Amino acid sequence: MTSELGLGSYAFFWEGADALPDGGNRWPLPLAGQLVRTAELGLGLFQICDYAPLLGYSAAELREVRAVADDLGIRLELGTKGVAPGHLRSFLGLAETLGARYLRSMVFAPDCRPTLAEAERTLRELMPAFDAAGVTLGLETYEQVSSADLVGLVEAVGADGLGICLDPANTVAGLENPREVVERCAPYVNGIHVKDFAFTRRDGWVGFTLAGTRMGEGLLDYAHLVETVRPAERGITRIVEHWLPWQGDLESTVALERDWTTHNVGYLKEN
Q1: Where is the signal peptide (predicted)?
Q2: Pairing relationship of beta strands 208-213 and 196-201 according to DSSP bridges
Q3: What is the pLDDT of residues 188-213, one digit of tens each?
Q4: With contact defined as beta carbons under 8 Å apart, do 9 and 235 qualify?
């Protein structure tokens, strides 16, 4: 299995959703099913990212998730949002239970928007516990915090176990050039979210839509990213995600989502 390349929850955004844009509700593909699909694609890594039910899992349910992953030969990573102390401590506990050695987060959460100074104080306080547990924390690049500010925060905290989860697609909404973001963040990157993206004109030619596309067909300069960050040399994992718009019905959307996943995994294995 390919251990440094994996899928994340956002690769199952539609197949794993329990509420749909057309108002329909259904039983989504469970977490165990997502792990099975990951193994079927020859991957040995899965990032449970922004998966809301996880905090409600009992200890027995968490052990079952880990057992399924272990049986399939899959390493787990985790992802959440925010740097609130209690929240990060909860996810550190989840990481230890699940055997995850990487946690992706963001500076802001929907209910918590600290200043950069407040985030720095919190991370200085918490990183010794992460280091002691052997869990690395990666703060993701996205439009709400500039990449320069994110780099400054990581440098100010100065902890070996703190770095940046690089997703240059996210920063476009903050009017940052993805190539410049890659180059600025490269020394601090400890995880990568990989998705291609493109702009298309909206109906009537008024405005644009920024959405995902299959790898190699959009604006992501993946060759530049790999050359600059050198993930294979540095042991940095790459997690496949999508920005796939709703296709009008569940069957069409899930079919395209699966197609993108298969294509993107193949593309990344070859590149």
Answers
A1: none
A2: antiparallel
A3: 999 999 999 999 998 878 899 999 99
A4: no
